[in-house]
Amino acid sequence: MTFRARHLLGIDHLAPDEILSVLDLADRYVALNRRTVKQSDALAGMTQINMFFENSTRTQSSFEIAGKRLGADVMNMNVASSSVKKGETLIDTAMTLNAMHPDLLVVRHNASGAVNLLASKVNCAVLNAGDGRHEHPTQALLDALTIRRAKGRIRGLTVAICGDIAHSRVARSNIMLLGKMENTVRLIGPPTLMPAQFGEFGCELYEDMREGLKGADVVMMLRLQKERMDGGFIPSEREYFHRYGLDAEKLAIAAPDAIVMHPGPMNRGVEIDGTIADDINRSVIQEQVEMGVAVRMACMDLLARNLRTERGRAAAGVMA
What we know:
Elements (H helix, E strand, L loop, with lengths): L15 H18 L13 E6 L4 H13 L3 E5 L12 H9 L5 E6 L4 H6 L5 E7 L5 H15 L6 E5 L6 H12 L3 E5 L15 E3 L2 H5 L4 E4 L15 H8 L3 H4 L7 E3 L12 H4 L7 H35 L1
Parallel strand pairs: 1-2, 1-3, 3-4, 5-6, 5-8, 6-7, 8-9
Helix pairs in contact: 1-5, 1-11, 2-11, 5-6, 5-11
């Protein structure tokens, strides 16, 4: 398998063959996760530290389960009671953890670029679990795996990403990945939630949801991220659902076999109708959760292989 990265900080630096390597290995981990015995020794003897400066039930639990199934010693750092809350800088925290010789560091932070900064200060492999408005690479990879398993391919599709584009690192990572894999990406949302620069990525921009959904193979809904909003981006949730919430009438405009996605957590009745979210014939939202564990297992496995190779070369150099 081809995977050259030392860290997984974003999609931008991954080549298409590296993306496919993650998806292919993740497919194997899906099969493992469906067995009665779900254990692997890919990370045996390694230590994984999860540092979540932002709350995330799905992502943190997914990384924790992934590490344990791979045989790693997993520690969840309690940021709320850590020295960071006592005034310690992020770099000092990183240096402290680095002195404990971890092998994998999973980081989620509310500041864009914080994970890249940490990666430059430690000797272990770092995985970005979401940083500010920047990126969320494993979410894009698990979305890609979900799409490939549902549609039979991850190229040549029309994918509509709808909603709060402006505040979404999920949208940014998906736009990059889907573009690398030669798909047509449509972004749909109100002007207040649609940054103009996303047009530079080669995306088609739509203010009218019905126009944007025509013939789409994949409909990816995004959560309204009110915690990142500092003004009146929408008139009201009721009006937003009327214009941009996914319901049966709007979904009928997409391709007859279009799948519906959402990274969670969902605001039912705001960005998606509950009956659509629960439709087992169209919705793959629960599959996304399942694929998340497998993709994170694959990412950590591939990074661990590179780390072992790097350390082996270093040791050989010392002996020589």
